[in-house]
Amino acid sequence: MNRMSVVWVRGELVQVSRGKGALVFMTLRDTKDDASFSVSMRASAFAKLDLEPQQGSEVVVQCKPTFWSRRGSLQLDAYDIRAVGIGDLLQRLERLKRTLFNEGLFNADRKRPLPFLPRTIGLICGRKSAAERDVIVNAEKRWPAVRFATREVAVQGVKAVAEVSEALRELDARGDVDVIIISRGGGSLEDLLPFSDESLVRLAAAARTPIVSAIGHEVDTPLLDLVADYRASTPTDAAKTVVPDIVVERTQLDEARRRAYSALTSRIDREKEALAAVRARPAFAEPHTMIESHAEVIDGAIASARASVTIALERARERVKALADQARALSPLHTLERGYAVVQGTDGSALTHPSEAPEGARLSIRLAGGRVSATSLGEE
């Protein structure tokens, strides 16, 4: 047995144990017969494999059998491990997953928030499926007025990708659909494979409408889950995610109303207290008292002003009289009133010497009471 050359052994990995040592230990089971082998591989070689062996993977192992006579057991010393069947499928999915990840399609900052209360929910599901019933029933329990635009499609098999994609395009183009749920129940890896199809995954990533993925059970993770805006563990979880609970919302609304009423009542009470404090001030409580005190001041000011004006007028009157008397004393008319006269020639000039009035000259004599005309008889 120990002289056997390197062989390829095909089987299913049922256990993979990676310790801190230099070896990785695995158990390889024959998928047809009830037999299994222990497999060991150097950790350095294991790390360089093109795939990451996982439990459930069907693989072919390049190895050299070693028989331990003391324990009576056969062990396979592995040099290479390659995927076949489901293992090869998982390997392809892992490569696609890495590609989409590197493109940023799984980034959290790409994911859009779900609407609080969608007008219409788009639902893509299997025909007459339990997933459809779970979503609709649970959503209507939470919000009875909820509306659905349901598209029943093939959710496994060769038509699944095309029908799901067409339904997604149609619902995404509708203006009244605010969120889209893509849902189906659990199944095998092959059953869920359409929801890891690259074209469908990229279509979902490019959709303008937020998408909720509810595919399989919680342990299932198709690639659609990773690009969706929200990944629901089950169809029921999807229903609870996309619509609020009307009972909870009513309770919260009642509580908000109560808090608002309490806050408003407290504000009104505070304003009433402030108004009462203002009204208690003397200016508002007994306004006539302040008016009366000011009225006395005003009356005194008026009396004082009147006295001042009277005195000022009397003084002005006396001043005017004195100025009038002074002007009268200096006025030529005052002199005329004492019996004097002013003799003027024909040119209106006052005469001051007899020579200015020769015999026969026409004269105008101004008296206090008027004028008289005269003719000069010459100098005496």
Automatic annotation (TrEMBL):
Enzyme class, spelled out: hydrolase
Gene Ontology cellular-component annotations: cytoplasm; exodeoxyribonuclease VII complex
Complex and partners: Heterooligomer composed of large and small subunits.
Family, similarity comment: Belongs to the XseA family.
Catalysed transformations (reactions): Exonucleolytic cleavage in either 5'- to 3'- or 3'- to 5'-direction to yield nucleoside 5'-phosphates
UniProt entry keywords in alphabetical sequence: Cytoplasm, Exonuclease, Hydrolase, Nuclease
InterPro entries: Exonuc_VII_L, Exonuc_VII_lsu_C, OB-fold_nuc-bd_dom
One annotated GO biological process: DNA catabolic process
Domain Exonuclease VII large subunit C-terminal positions: 105-324
Compartments (UniProt record): Cytoplasm
Pfam family for this entry, one: tRNA_anti_2
Domain OB-fold nucleic acid binding: 5-81
Transferase is among the record's keywords: no
EC number: 3.1.11.6
PANTHER family according to UniProt: EXODEOXYRIBONUCLEASE 7 LARGE SUBUNIT (PTHR30008:SF0)
Function recorded in the entry: Bidirectionally degrades single-stranded DNA into large acid-insoluble oligonucleotides, which are then degraded further into small acid-soluble oligonucleotides.
Domain of life of the organism encoding this protein: Bacteria
The protein's name: Exodeoxyribonuclease 7 large subunit
